[in-house]
Amino acid sequence: MNDEITNSRREFMKKMGAASLAAAAVSIPTASFLSSCSTTPAIHSTADTVILLWMAGGMAHTETFDPKAYTPYTKGVESKRILSSFPKVPTAVDGLYFSKGLESIGSVMDKGAIIRSYKSADLGHILHTRHQYHWHTCYEPPQSVQAPHIGAWIAKELGPVNPVIPPFIAMGQRFTVGEGEELKAFHTAGFLGSEYGPFLIPDPSSGLESVRPPQGMSIKRFEARNQLYKELANKSEVMERGSDYQRESLMRSMEQSYRLLNSPESQVFDLTQEPKEKYDIYNTGRFGLGCLTAKRLAMNGARFVSISTEYEPFLGWDTHENGHTRVVKMKKLIDGPVAQLVKDLDESGHLDRTLIVLASEFSRDALLEGRPGEKVQDQVNQPDVIEDEKFYGMHRHFTDGSSILMWGGGIKKGLVYGKTADERPCSSIENTVVIDQIHQTIYHALGIHPETNYTIEGRPFYTTPDGQGKAVLELLA
């Protein structure tokens, strides 16, 4: 990666690190740390739980849920001819087509809706973690304080459904690979306090190990370790420099994790309890098993669960080369588990109150970097004529059009909302949707008022910037 982009990433992390310290040190009396919209009329909720299926790395809409004209690979084909490298296939909704390899998800679209006109923000240098930060927090980085993840807002405003199950659980993303520190920047509750931050499970296949003592360790020894951990936490930066609220929140988060460890609800992470025929459908890897865990959590009182295909530079959906062959593999990873998650929740009666959202930070295009008319650093060398199949498929980052899928939780069934152009650039051309609308639609379904805010550094901090986000009511039944 070139020096300019590397320097931009370092500057981003420097500013976000400063914001983290500011968030921890900000002094907010607990009595005044209350949502200022407590006197506003309540919103009728249609959902209790949110499951976010995160396609980390930039999922090309024209290769997945919004296929365009198909051009098969032949040696010597011109790059400009390629709009989709997969043929389209029908779904359960008349007139709605997905690309080949997503037949299972297509079969459950009569239970949900698709937004085909999502447009990512123009953030200058296109860095995945900057756009992921923006998607998950609704705030453009950097901020003077640490903006809370959408899951943290939901956990704070609504609290747990089941007091034993952590209200915000994030699965599938490790912080030991690639841009780990940048990813940590938005996996946080920020100024809301540690108790509303994510309960992290990097590998869902080992989820049970996250909520019980290590093998061979007695309960007595584990309790001694837990006490030692509390003593170390008391010496942490938050405990030494944070406000009373931040210190109390940290201790409550530790107590919550310990309570789960000793509860019958911890068995929700034991995937061996699933029937083999169901388990086998979900067992496509860590993401698939994350979907299975999310199903079990939703049925047992989780509030917000995210599952990531995991962002690691140049892997997964980050298709800088071998785009077509990589997407074939990614479709196999998600198609069965996502569809089965929808089916299982529907059959159990939980889908009505569970909102499932499938999204990515931006899309991809073979020729355009960013969006038309906005010059940004080109990060991929795409030849005009393809002589090697590794250049077949969408490579460059494209922020001018993307797809988001939604099911359950009051979402209309069989709805197609918005449109992108059928010719390059395949930009949003009808009912464009941006991130604050996505967040506010989710909050609206949950009954969280758009005026929800907290006073931070002497100014109101809303769920969406300046409280201006508007729900896309056309998506709701």
Structure described in brief:
InterPro entries: Alkaline_phosphatase_core_sf, DUF1501, TAT_signal. With 477 residues, the chain is an alpha/beta fold. The protein has helices at 3-25, 103-106, 128-137, 150-158, 180-184, 219-233, 237-241, 244-261, 276-282, 286-299, 323-348, 435-446; strands at 49-54, 77-78, 88-90, 97-99, 112-118, 168-171, 199-201, 304-308, 354-359, 363-365, 385-386, 396-398, 402-407, 415-417, 419-420, 428-430, 453-456, 459-462.
Could you explain how this protein is built, in words?
- The chain is α/β, with parallel strands linked by helices and 477 residues long.
- It has helices at 3-25, 103-106, 128-137, 150-158, 180-184, 219-233, 237-241, 244-261, 276-282, 286-299, 323-348, 435-446; strands at 49-54, 77-78, 88-90, 97-99, 112-118, 168-171, 199-201, 304-308, 354-359, 363-365, 385-386, 396-398, 402-407, 415-417, 419-420, 428-430, 453-456, 459-462.
- The strands form six sheets. Strands 7-6-8-1-9-13-5-14 form an eight-stranded mixed sheet, with helices on both faces.
- A hairpin with a 7-residue loop joins strand 15 and strand 16.
- The radius of gyration is 22 Å and the shape is globular.
- The termini are far apart.
- The model is unreliable at 14-34 (pLDDT under 50).
